[in-house]
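Run log, item B.
One chain of 510 residues. Sequence copied directly from the ordering sheet:
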Amino acid sequence: MTDDAVRLGQELRSLRLARDMSGGATFVIDPDLRVVSADGPDLAEAGIDGEDLVGRRLDEILSSDSPSSLLAAYKSALAGQEADVEFVEEASGRLFHVEVRPLRGPDDEVVGAVARSDDLSSIRAQQTHLEHIASMHVVGVSTYDVRSGWHHDECALELLGIDDPGLEADQLIERAVLPADRAALAASWGRMAQEGGRETVTFRVLAGSGSGDPVGPERRIQSTVEVLVGKEGQLLRVVSTHVDVTASVTASAKLEQAQRQAHADRFALVRDVSAVLTSSMLPVADLLKAILDVAVAALGGGAWFAETSPDGLSFAHVAVSAEDPGTAERLAELWADPSARPMPDLPLLRAVLASGEPATSIDDPGWVARFEAQAGQPPAVGIRHFIIVPVRSHARVVGLLSLLRTDETKPYGRDDLDLAQILADRAGAAIAAELALLSATRERDRRLATNLLLEDARIQRHRLVERLSATESRERRLLAEAVHDEPIQLIAAARLRVMALQRRFDLERG
């Protein structure tokens, strides 16, 4: 050891600086990492005589559980650099903070190092208590450490309905928690006792119950538990804070029921309105625009509808709507520009058209990044949340209905997805009705054309019959005239000749 380091160590001991501190320990080492002095209440509490450490090297004294950063801090101080280290002692679960500073001689050369070690376990536990209390507004606290075991303060005893401040976690669950919640809470505690970490759990107890018997009104407790586990899986420290959230849970249940009722009312209203629209005599283009307006009125944001072309390579008919006129104008401009408008081959749209299943940003916070990677540009008009549902007609996807919101703080929910699909089905019904009407019109026109052809053929046949009849009459007349004029005269002349020859023959014979 150097004389300077020994001298400083002796001065520290003579001043009894370490013993005057409220806890902690002080060490002085020489450049060879040998202990010059070691003193302090923490050493005495651990049953260590500082005199026994003098002359021993630190790398021999430090246990295998000590962090490598601790020895590195001493070496940094010997190199002239200040160092601070914070670590948890595995054996006890205590949190230590060590400050290591270089010791300098008269010529400012480093002649050793001095370290101050403080046990921050109680301070950190109190800090954790305050953080939990500030964040959760709780007053009940349960703690555990390997030295003092379990402890539940008075507020925790009252909240949990127990009377034993030393109950262990398993005993507390068995005695205070309602049977229906015990298994889940025990599983959660078992997992944390093995892995450590922090978790918030909610369970039910009965006021004034220390055995789980129903002796009071049911209360709901929310506990935030922070657990520290050693390398060997041993439980080192637990800090748990408790709050009675019965009132907030009751209020939340009432609010949820009111929201469900409001959704049911909205659902029924949208369904009825869309049904009336579908059964109206509006032209299909006006009908689709009206359905979009209903979607925007019910869900806010904006909406667009696009019907696929017969070959499926483009969109043939488009309608847009939005509660914000600026958004409506940007949507109209987007669809009016063939080079900027979405096309059916866009992966997001193609997936819906091919599968007949909706696509949505619900529970998908990373969709914007994926869209930019696929499309090479961010979503149009600042879209942050969307729903795209298929428009079906006779089990065939004939278009898309999309709802969109630009407000990052207003995501869509599953109920909104259901409403969107209802409106899409109404749009599909309108398209089917239009197709049926077009088909009926074409069939009517075909029949009319056929009837006209048949009528024309009948008229032509009648005319042909009349012409045939006239021809036959004329031919009979001509034949009659021909027979009367020439053959009869020939016959008469021949008869006259025969008669003349007969008379001549008779005269010659007689």
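Observations after the first pass:
- Residues 252 and 258 are 10 Å apart (CA to CA).
- The longest strand covers residues 218-229.
Flagged for discussion on Thursday.
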